[in-house]
Amino acid sequence: MTTEVSAVSFRQNLGELLNQVQYRNDSIVISTRTRMRHIREQVLFPGERI
To answer: Which parts of the chain register pLDDT below 70?
Structure first.
């Protein structure tokens, strides 16, 4: 599931939203007046680095 939130709402609910990404595999789109950002969980394979 993808959730769209404002930057202010994201800042106010940071812990809850990050838990949604980590434990429920949700995605979050953070919208501001001019830009949008997408947060999702990165799946790494053993030995892989970012």
So the answer is: 42-50
Distance of alpha carbon 24 from alpha carbon 40, whole angstroms: 11
Q: Which residues pair with 33 in a beta bridge?
A: none
Query: DSSP character for 10?
Result: H
- Residue pointed to by tokens 């949604």: 20
**Is residue 2 a contact partner of residue 27, using CB atoms and an 8 Å limit?**
yes
User: Helix H segments across 1-50?
Assistant: 7-12, 14-24
0.70 exceeded by pTM: no
Structural domains of the chain ordered from first start: 2-39 (3.40.1620.10)
Alpha-carbon distances, residue 20 vs 8, 29, 34 (angstroms):
17, 12, 25
